[in-house]
Amino acid sequence: MRIGVLTGGGDCPGLNAVIRAVVRKGVGTYGHEFVGFRDGWKGPLENKTMPLTVKEVRGILPRGGTILRSSRTNPFKIEGGVERIKANLAELGVDALVAIGGEDTLGVATKLTDLGVNVVGVPKTIDNDLNATDLTFGFDTAVNIAMEAIDRLHTTAESHHRAVVVEVMGRHAGWIALHAGLAGGANVILLPERRFDLADVIAHVQKRFEIDYSPIIVIAEGAMPADGDMVTVTGELDSFGHVRLGGIGNWLAQQIVQQTGKEARAVVLGHIQRGGTPSAFDRVLATRFGLAAIDAVNDRDFGKMVALRGTEIIRVPLIEATKELKTVPAHRFAEAEAFFD
Ligand code: F6P
């Protein structure tokens, strides 16, 4: 078979590990051939290809980012986009695609499957908010990066009697905030899933200062106070209609300064959480996903996504992955609040 591989959406540590596993097993075990599509769905749309042999995937396991590059192009938003993709795949003799991506990329994969394109999906996002898989690769690395930052911030905060607000990624889901906050011993953890009471946060910060303790507040980029809306709290939205990175973190640090008279700083981790080398856990998960994805292609089991369920890698219908976001469930809010006393 001739198989196309693409990576779409925001990059994520472990993408290269998936590509490597797909190609190594695809060539070595099954004797398939590969075409690399560059820049997500823009690749098959504009015939942007690159060779993808065992040689290209040598040495990429520890490398962050994606050798195939990425984009947020959605062919369904482009006039005649889908027809162009189908024609290009036919012209290149590509029988099947492995699409590695998050909600948007896999959403396109789902629709293309319905239109007769042979696709197998691989879930990725540092946010861990994809449905139908217990975990996504990239999440563990992002949490470790944020945890290390929080560890460092504790010592500088206490030396200067300051509060530090650490803003982590997570527009709709607070998985990174919850796990990094727990791992880093944060005093307050604020998630997008539950609006927070600013007065409670301020009272807690004040209480901590009274016992000579410099509080660390971890906040997800999409968290909001109970009585604020995104625009008034964070200023203008960006050109995609999203809250600006740093908007809520800086706002909260300012509120702490104004309402407690203490010093506060905001640290916005942003894309540092996405870049660089994957953790061992993410390398293994990404590799297992890649191996399972090429097995699914080889079995011609299309319209499926590989997923982690417990400790096993299973196949689920692609539609399962994208029907809703996996946010932090209510029963886990107590973990975020346990140190908020
Ligand atoms: O999907 C991962 C993510 O990192 C989100 O947490 C974040 O809101 C978004 O991507 C940022 O996207 P961009 O790279 O387009 O700024």
Automatic annotation (TrEMBL):
GO cellular component: 6-phosphofructokinase complex
Gene that produces this protein: pfk
Chain positions recorded as substrate binding sites: 125-127, 162, 169-171, 221, 265, 271-274
Site (Important for catalytic activity): 124
Entry's Gene Ontology molecular function annotations: 6-phosphofructokinase activity; AMP binding; ATP binding; diphosphate-fructose-6-phosphate 1-phosphotransferase activity; fructose-6-phosphate binding; identical protein binding; metal ion binding; monosaccharide binding
Superkingdom, taxonomy of origin: Bacteria
The family this protein is said to belong to: Belongs to the phosphofructokinase type A (PFKA) family. Mixed-substrate PFK group III subfamily.
Site (Important for catalytic activity and substrate specificity): 104
GO biological process entries: canonical glycolysis; fructose 1,6-bisphosphate metabolic process; fructose 6-phosphate metabolic process
Protein name: Pyrophosphate--fructose 6-phosphate 1-phosphotransferase
Compartments (UniProt record): Cytoplasm
Quaternary structure and interacting proteins, as annotated: Homodimer or homotetramer.
EC nos: 2.7.1.90
Activity: how regulated: Non-allosteric.
Database matches in InterPro entries: ATP_PFK (IPR022953), ATP_PFK_prok-type (IPR012003), Phosphofructokinase_CS (IPR015912), Phosphofructokinase_dom (IPR000023), Phosphofructokinase_III (IPR012829), PKF_sf (IPR035966)
Enzyme class: transferase
Co-factor(s): Mg(2+)
All copies of domain Phosphofructokinase, residue ranges: 2-297
Active-site residue list: 127 (proton acceptor)
Keyword Magnesium appears in the UniProt entry: yes
Catalytic activity: beta-D-fructose 6-phosphate + diphosphate = beta-D-fructose 1,6-bisphosphate + phosphate + H(+)
Pathway annotation from the record: Carbohydrate degradation; glycolysis; D-glyceraldehyde 3-phosphate and glycerone phosphate from D-glucose: step 3/4
